[in-house]
Design a protein that fits this description.
Distance between the termini: 74 Å
Strand order of the largest sheet: 2-1-3
Largest sheet: 3 strands, mixed
Structural class: mainly alpha
Number of strands: 3
Helix content: over 70%
Amino acid sequence: MNLHNGSIQITEFVIGGFEEVGRQMEIGLVILIVYVLLMLANTLNIVFVILDKKLHKPMYLLICNLAVVDMLYSTSSCPTMIGVLLAGVNTISYAACLIQMFSFQVAETMELFALAVMAFDRLIAISFPLRYHSILTNVRTIAITYFLWVAACGFVTLMPVLLIPMPYCFNRLRYSFCDFPAVARTSCLNPSYYFNLATIVWFFLLFFTFGFICISYVWIMSVVLRSSKNDSRKVLSTCFSHMLVVACYYVPLFVRIVFTRIGLVLTLEERQGLMIGAILGPSLLNPFVYCLTTKEIKNKLFGIFKKVKPIQ
């Protein structure tokens, strides 16, 4: 690829997404508090599962995987935003920017995969309850999870491969951290082709995983309809936490897609708010959902609090 006449050598990017945002300190503090809470909550979920051998089961291994994904998802974006808002550090090196972009896109892709494989887990547990532990063993669960991480990295590798050869005419990012659209817009080239290519891959992954989840729950509902009232309650209770987590992730995502498709013009602040909310909201809610709706984790948590005696 021939370099554009006006291209420049990029050593760092300037993050300009918050330049016109008011009350930066307050926003930065909110993001910091939420980030610390979600990191603690997800870490606790992982620690509970690791330390309790009774929880060494496929469902809880998948909960741990989701916690790792949520931590990566938020860590690949929040520290940069916190640095800009609270410390005024609004530059990031070119290499660090590409690493951040890759990590963010891998986490975003793995969020789709993680929710889909958790739906598969519930499908097997409800459709084949007597054979569940022989079909989905811990080893197979870890192998599936490993394969999904490799697949996510493979899909996302397309993005840095497209960006690295590009000639750059600007070093200022319009958004609050490094993601593919923000970096591509700094190129001297028309980014439409690259956006379209990335969009095709993203929509394929999005609708494939969401379609799989929907088909899984259609099958599960068919099982529920054939079951007694007591069995139906048990089935729905085992799926409730996963359905809530799926809703927390997909509703903000589809809201953004609908807003874009209907041509609703959003200000930069509104777009930033939707993006930040879509990152932090599910990552914070997921560990609390599983702590409060999964009996084994909830009992473990309450047991710890009961052991802590109040100071006389």
